[in-house]
Amino acid sequence: MLASIRSATLLGVDGHPVTVEVHVAVGLPSFTLVGLPDAACREARERVRAAFVSSGIGWPQKKITVNLAPSVVRKVGSSLDLAIAVGVLVASDAIAATLVDDVGFIGELGLDGTIRRVPGVLSLVGALDCSTVVVAPGAHAEAALLSRHTVRVAGTLSELLRSLMGDEPWSDPPPAPHEPPPIHVPDLAEVRGQPLARFALEVAAAGGHHVLLVGPPGAGKTMLARRLPGLLPELDDDAALEATRIHSAAGAALDGLGLVRRPPFRAPHHGASSASLVGGGTGNIRPGEISLAHRGVLFLDELGEFSPVVLDALRQPLEEGVVRVARAAVRLELPARFLLVGAMNPCPCGEGSPPGTCHCAPAARARYARRLSGPLLDRFDLRLDVARPEVSRLLGGGAEESSACVAARVLEVRERTAARGVRGNAELHGTALEEAAPLTDAATNVLESALRAGWLSGRGVGRVRAVARTIADLRGDARLDAEHVALALNLRSEVFRRETRVA
Amino acid sequence: MSPAPLPPEAWSAALTTLPAMGPARLLGLLRRWRPEEAWHHVADASWLHDREVALAVGRDAGRMAELWVACADTTDVAAVWQRHVDAGIGVLTLRSHSYPAPLLDDVEPPGVLFGRGDPDVIAGPRVAIVGTRDASQYGLDLAYELGRDLSAAGVAIVSGLAIGIDGAAHAGALAADTAPPIAVVGSGLDIVYPRKHQSLWREVERRGVVLSEAPLGAPPEKWRFPARNRVIAALADVVVVVESRELGGSMHTVAEAQRRDRPVFAAPGPVRSATSSGTNRLLRDGAQVLCDASDVLLALGLCAALLRSVQESRPEPSTEDAAVLDAVGWSPVSLDALAARANRPLGALALSLDRLRADGWLTERGGWYERIARSDR
């Protein structure tokens, strides 16, 4: 007898439909699995057989062949376990083929017959075009997000068998928590002083500009960066679904409702390898930190301590919003449109600001600054020196503005920006920028003098203009005035140019 | 026809090209023999039998002899000489008539000096202005003003053409365009180091003189700089340290100046400033206090009336901008602190700072604003 069951496998963050064909024939008992399975997938044989026995379903003592089609796609992980088990049941005449005609199965089997949740359920379910899908109880919320299928859950193989046969009704999905546990996002009100850095964060959130914070230890760089996600608006439906797909594929925990609504915040350690940051790996290609930060914030603390190779791998995703991972067998794209926040010390001793307080040799300082390649430094529209706050500000002083106030302004700007056809002003280039950011005469003068004095490069002009556009948006002005441009220039200081020109 | 005999300068120049030929060894050889004889003694290692010279060479004499013989074998003295003639480099030996007079009776005079420019400008009063390469705006301003004012009063500025204080002092001297500048460098005269000072270097050559103990092609090796500092101290009547850390080349220059009983001035700096820690220590140890150029003129026995007043050439800031400038004060300040101090919104403040920066009243380094004192740039 022959059975063919629908399921899906995960490549990167995308699901690919897989048809599990099971053939049961008379002959010496055997169980063969073909169709380019990886190690975890091949081990399905042992899991499925044990699950049958534990569930009290007899294992057919026949020659069983399982083919995973199409055979050119590499099948990774254990998401096909359930489909293989159902295929064996159908092919050995335990259940009728018509019962599973329009049903997809996604799940891993335990040796005791339990059905377990697998990473990437959202993408896997999305790849199926049948009307019903069966998943593990824990994966219900995630599978139901697409609301294209009837989602059924089954806790064990025997329960699934009974439900399929109509002996008992499908079990209810686990109740969704009424309210997702509140995610604690630190508030900007806790930051004392630092008016310029606060303003830079607001501009970054409103315009999607990458930020580089340079300052001595204890200046509050990390504290500031952690408050940036709180200023960003919640993800819209499309963005939330994209982010959820990635988190699901990476096996990251999703909160109660299953959907990633808050912009993610990822802060990998500086020992991160290139594969862990941009994604990849052998065989099973997994999204990296930059993909997990998709539509959110990627915070790289101690930027100077990252390997230069790893940092330069960020350049292409920063430009294009996707990572292209190519391996001998597969080539795939992982989404990675994130807001980059970098933090580092001005020099090896860390005390380099203000000028004249550091004890490093000029050559050592130059070497430290060179750890950041010019092209990468160029991607940061906002670069600022964060000084330690003044003592009086730390202890006394009135309440500072809260994240909620700033987030309201940010949301307003983001809505206005959407009318220009971009998500943030940072995406404005060329003619779109010319049109969106008209300069007053005074503003042109400020830019011109900066260019003449050599403080600004040709490329820098465009970036300063985009930042000035965001500043003007925050203040509700249509045209860019001198003040906006001057502020934008100040937010792009040459953080590593510490030697002074003489004569 | 046999070629014309080479001048003694040619043999001296050839001697300096030998490896590890420091000032003491060179002087030991040249004090004992005439340059040509010295070269032949080196070429056949016979100097080893001369106790005086062997003493000057010091330890490792045997190894040095081998090394020198090997190098002397492959050195074409005539070609070395021709290179210097072609490059327009003057070679001054202790017996040359244009050898700087102040060095003749020095405790450790350079056996050979290479010079580009006019070595005869080393005649009038001279002041060495030295300091850290990693200078603050305060130090750079002060060095520039001193260079300018002293030069205007007819005092030649001696310095090392390094980044920071040295460069600023010479830039000031060139701005005044009165007394010829004198530079002593640590590399060969065809190797401009630091490269950033290429134009400054050329200008000093054109208007004064650049001296070096190193032959053409010699890279700026570490050991050459203390030796260079000794020549600076020996050439100057007064040594001024504008800004220096406690460990630095300037401290070496000061030690050399003290060995020669030259007066040493130090400019006081904030006690917390790392870049002024050395100068402040010098003051505690008894160096003379420098407040402006007149202090130095007095030490030279010159009249302070020689100082010219300087015209302010920068455009007057508006009342609004002037208030911001006052708030900046005289130490580096961040935009944050300035906003609190001047009590102005960030936008208006940024605009004021931008105007002040464009007019030359302020400089910005990595987000920190510093006031510029000098009026001409």
Would you write up a description of this structure?
- The complex is a heterodimer of chains A (503) and B (377).
- Chain A is of the alpha/beta class and 503 residues long.
- Chain A has 21 helices and 16 strands.
- Chain A has helices at residues 39-42, 44-54, 81-91, 121-126, 140-144, 157-165, 195-207, 221-226, 237-249, 274-278, 289-292, 308-312, 315-320, 362-370, 374-378, 391-395, 403-418, 430-436, 441-452, 458-475, 482-490; strands at 2-11, 14-25, 30-34, 63-69, 103-105, 108-109, 115-116, 132-135, 150-153, 211-214, 265-266, 297-300, 322-326, 331-335, 339-344, 382-385.
- In chain A, helix 2 (44-54) packs across helix 3 (81-91) and helix 19 (441-452) runs parallel beside helix 21.
- The longest helix of chain A is centred in the last third of the chain and has 18 residues, at 458-475.
- Mean pLDDT of chain A is 88; it is low at 498-503.
- Chain B is an alpha/beta fold.
- In chain B, the strands form 2 sheets. A 9-stranded mixed beta sheet of chain B has the order 1-2-6-5-4-3-7-8-9, with helices on both faces.
- Chains A and B meet through helix 7, helix 19 and helix 21 of A and helix 8, helix 9, strand 10, helix 16 and helix 17 of B.
Task: Sum up the structure in keywords.
heterodimer; A: 503 residues; alpha/beta; four-stranded mixed β-sheet; B: 377 residues; three-stranded antiparallel β-sheet; 17 helices; 12 strands
Q: Which secondary-structure class do the elements of chain A indicate?
A: alpha/beta
Low-confidence stretches of chain B: none
Oligomeric description of these chains: heterodimer
The main pleated sheet of chain A reads as: 5 strands, parallel
Largest sheet of chain B: 9 strands, mixed
Secondary-structure-derived class of chain B = alpha/beta
Query: Largest interface here, residues on each chain?
Result: A-B, 46 and 45 residues
Tally of DSSP helical segments of chain B: 17
**N/C terminus separation of chain B:** 58 Å
Which radius of gyration of chain B do the C-alpha atoms yield? 24 Å
Order of helices and strands of chain B: HHHHHHEHEEHEHEHEHEHEHEHHEHHEE
Mean pLDDT of chain A: 88
Mean pLDDT of chain B equals: 90
Q: What percentage of amino acids of chain A are in beta strands? A: 15-25%
Query: Which descriptor suits the 3D outline of chain B?
Result: elongated
List low-confidence stretches of chain A: 498-503
Name the strands of the widest sheet of chain A in spatial order. Answer: 11-12-15-10-16
* Share in β-strands of chain B: 5-15%
Number of strands of chain A: 16
What spatial order of strands do you see in the largest sheet of chain B? Answer: 1-2-6-5-4-3-7-8-9
